[in-house]
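Handout, section B. The chain below has 174 residues.
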Amino acid sequence: SGNYYATVYQTIADKIRTIQENRAMANFPEVADAIDEICEDALTPDEKGDVIALQINDAKLSTNNNVVKNLQTEFDYIFRDVLDINDTGHSLFKNFYVEAELAAELVINPEKPEQGIKKISILPADTLIVDQDEYGDIKGFKQILMWMATTSSNSEKSGQSEIPLEKDKVAYIN
């Protein structure tokens, strides 16, 4: 098996180059049309107009009405109220399809953590480093920020910073 992430992206430069190539291909009209068709097929609304629904596969959980009600309430809040999946779903699915991963920062008010997730911010895939162990389990995330500045002598300086992200505050799929 091995570590998928490390196998596909030997370095962050490989990852950035791969994502840039995928984005460039996605801009060709024929490819763009095919991707849009795939996204539309994947996100077909149901009779209520929803493109996503909660399905509980665990037999014990699915028969507990209290658990089902609480899960459905949280699901609706995250996907409908915070993420607005019916409006953002096509864009998110297209990004995932083209970039082969999707990450979001789960924003919680530190003053009132009991209120839960207040906002979900999508992180650009080409700025994200996924730190995994030898078994492919995620240990954490870092976001790369590139910067450029002009000094007082009009020369330019540039660099990059790695910002660690708390593992439990990032939702990630690949």
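Note. The chain has a mean pLDDT of 88. Compare this with the example in section A.
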